[in-house]
UniProtKB/TrEMBL annotation, chain A:
<dbReference type="Pfam" id="PF10932">
    <property type="entry name" value="DUF2783"/>
</dbReference>
<protein>
    <submittedName>
        <fullName>DUF2783 domain-containing protein</fullName>
    </submittedName>
</protein>
<dbReference type="InterPro" id="IPR021233">
    <property type="entry name" value="DUF2783"/>
</dbReference>
UniProtKB/TrEMBL annotation, chain B:
<keyword id="KW-0274">FAD</keyword>
<dbReference type="InterPro" id="IPR036188">
    <property type="entry name" value="FAD/NAD-bd_sf"/>
</dbReference>
<keyword id="KW-0285">Flavoprotein</keyword>
<dbReference type="InterPro" id="IPR050641">
    <property type="entry name" value="RIFMO-like"/>
</dbReference>
<protein>
    <submittedName>
        <fullName>FAD-dependent oxidoreductase</fullName>
    </submittedName>
</protein>
<dbReference type="Pfam" id="PF01494">
    <property type="entry name" value="FAD_binding_3"/>
</dbReference>
<feature type="domain" description="FAD-binding">
    <location>
        <begin position="27"/>
        <end position="360"/>
    </location>
</feature>
<dbReference type="InterPro" id="IPR002938">
    <property type="entry name" value="FAD-bd"/>
</dbReference>
Amino acid sequence: MSEHLNLKPNIANADDFYADLLAAHKGLSKDESDAYNARLLLILANHIGDRKVLREALEAAKSKT
Amino acid sequence: MTKIFETPLYPYTRHADQAAKTPVRRKVVVIGAGPIGLAAAIDLAQQGIEAIIVDENDKVSFGSRAICFAKRPLEILDRLGCGDPMVDKGVVWNLGKVFFDERKVYEFNLLPEGGHKRPAFINLQQYYFEQYLVNRARELEREGAPIEIRGGNKVIELKDQGDHVDLTIDTPEGAYQLEADWVIACDGAASPTRQMMGLDFVGRVFEDNFLIADVIMDAPFPTERWFWFDPPFNKGQSALLHKQPDGVWRIDLQLGWDIDKEEEKKPEKVIPRLKAMLGEDVQFELEWVSIYTFQCRRMEKFRHGRVLFAGDSAHQVSPFGARGANSGLQDTDNLCWKLKLVMDGKAPESLLDSYDDERIYGADENILNSSRSTDFITPKSDMSHLLRDAVLDLSEHYEFARPLVNSGRLSVPCTYDQSPLNSLDKLDGPARTRPGSPCPDAPLGDGYLLDQLGDQFTLLIINADAPEELEVDGIKIKRLALSSADDSTNAIKERYLGKATQAVYLIRPDQHVAARHKTFDQDYFTTALRRAIGKSA
């Protein structure tokens, strides 16, 4: 059975996670924040691993407006 | 027509205490006749404790101010005998819509759980809220309860003498002295009492201004909460539209930090802003305009000897989430039964320290939630702005992003998980009714469970055996025995039994669970009651 990208809520306490994310950026310059985001997405992508799911994620993140 | 907030409801009149040769000693003096002060005095007076409210003004709140009242405070008002006029007049709403730029990105329904007497939320102008509390205080006064509202009475000096508090109160006819066994300071965020006592009030200042307007209009907007992030009519900022009774609409517009407040309040500035939002053709009339800034902060302790702080005087939050007045009512709900037991000599004075434990815990939860909402609504850095906009973009298309959208986490009561008044949970029951929890309502016979609880300790017995009478250390415990036959909707089973077939709950006078057990265990409940009144068990 092949996995699909999960676009349903999946984080137990979304507000706590978002606060952690903002805290991670606290005190960083714009360049440092951009670099942080790049590292973060590579780490998360590696955790996902599945190429098909990653392709779906790359598609889902494209701007719709 | 004169508006209710223009009518002196408790004008100054001379009181015999002002002519007394030696200062008269009163039981409790409540400073401030706002929602929290009135609720405190009503709570005490209806239990027979003298409560004198002093307020330098003589009218209810000017403008709508606090408008969203949540279910738990409405339940508290039921206990105080004035829930009905609030809910009858208030506007019930469940649906919220979130807009980003020109698009509606999603909508949410509060979907209140069935089987509760009170709705999740009502909108009601603070001036009505205060008026109905004043009406209730007057009703109690007529029935002979020891309650009084002294308008035009401004406390200008107070000193805690250890066994009482000395007060100097200024009036239009000069100052007089009064003594009080206890003082409850409900005099708002700028609390003169707190300042007179030299107490700190530290926290975080949010550098933003919000224009707040009450608009009377006949417009086809539905009874919903509409929230805009970065709308075309207020670029780069936020906006909120909410319906109140009497065709009054509440509009909040974020203005940013560097503005001229006096200039922005002028009708010639406000009206074009509102027209841009509502449309050129909509006819409206401005009832009230104000500009507010906010802070999230609290006092280090709410109890200072014989002076107890409640509501905004003790803690302040941003308005997102309706956690101001709603949490203040939970303060007095928590405080008044404890104060009564201490004054009656049935509990040690240290019971009042649990007011600090429990309500500081509540205040911190409210400050955390309202700070997070504020950070989402008004991002403080480029990156938090970018992340915020990404969440909003994604929320239009993907369900996963919607829990991240934060336009205010609406007030819910907190569970006092760490309270020293709780006993060990001895029931394999639902988590929502564990010790420390506020009791969830449920249909019971022709009415509701919560109407049977409160004001005194109650033993709630479900399908179990327990003695007909129970008294511990001079405190009589009310008995409420139910069986599955009383629970036609199964709500009591679902909320209080879970997998268990029977249960016994010890419920505090403020309708929070103190202890629960599968059976009536005499030792367990005797110890639990003692612990719940602050006695070392």
